[in-house]
Amino acid sequence: MTWRQILEAGKGQLKAAGVAEYELDAWYLFEYAFGISRAHFYLCAKDEETASSEQREVYETYLKRREAREPLQYILGEQEFMGLSFYVNRHVLIPRQDTEILVETVLSRHERKETSILDMCAGSGCIAVSLAALGGYFCIMGADISHEAVFTARKNAARLCGSGTVRFRESDLFSAFSAEERFDVIVSNPPYIESGEIDALEPEVSRFEPRTALDGAGDGLCFYRRLCADCTRHLNDGGHVYFEIGSRQGEAVLSLLEARGFTETEIIKDLTGKDRVVCAGWQTG
Q: N or C of the chain: less Cβ packing under 10 Å?
């Protein structure tokens, strides 16, 4: 079989499996398996080159994984976020474009390099590492309950902004933090999907992404309640919080923040007009 024939067969296999972007995914997997550029494929060898049995076996393995609806990002081992390429695996949530709004908001509102920042529920480290790489802040820390997620985040930090630039800690929210540890900014993209809704999500999400990074309990607000209570003990006077939220959770999270004494509460919408980020200020006086 020529390369073109192999690629077309792969597209058909993924289409039959119900993969929405079957053409694009088949190409990405083909490129990854055969180690060629798209330009080389189209200009030089699409009809002439034949593949070895070893190459075809590798491609078939990738196709079967995608056919089973494993996310493309886990197969390729990477996902772009804020113009940076992050290493991802099944222990971390795949970074999404929606979360870039959270990073962009912090970057635009906190220009001082001395601003100390904590990324709670850090996962792959995409928020903390992006802030370090693009904002140049001197003090950034990330925390996650998952040992594997912390390992992944540290790997991304070392690759994208230098070892030691961002520190990561294994912690169930603030359980591993002392009362003296305070920050100017606390950001978080916590689990916020209602437990009963997870199984109805796309199989790429419900079957493969870590449930601990998705499940916000019965009403999806479990972690916001904990964050709103605990952040007050770990914010400097005049500090701010920025939380990513589900599209229907804006008012509920604002109410939780205001009930804890936060001020300057605000909902930021995404490009489609849906609620995406809640932010608020904190005064100790």
A: C
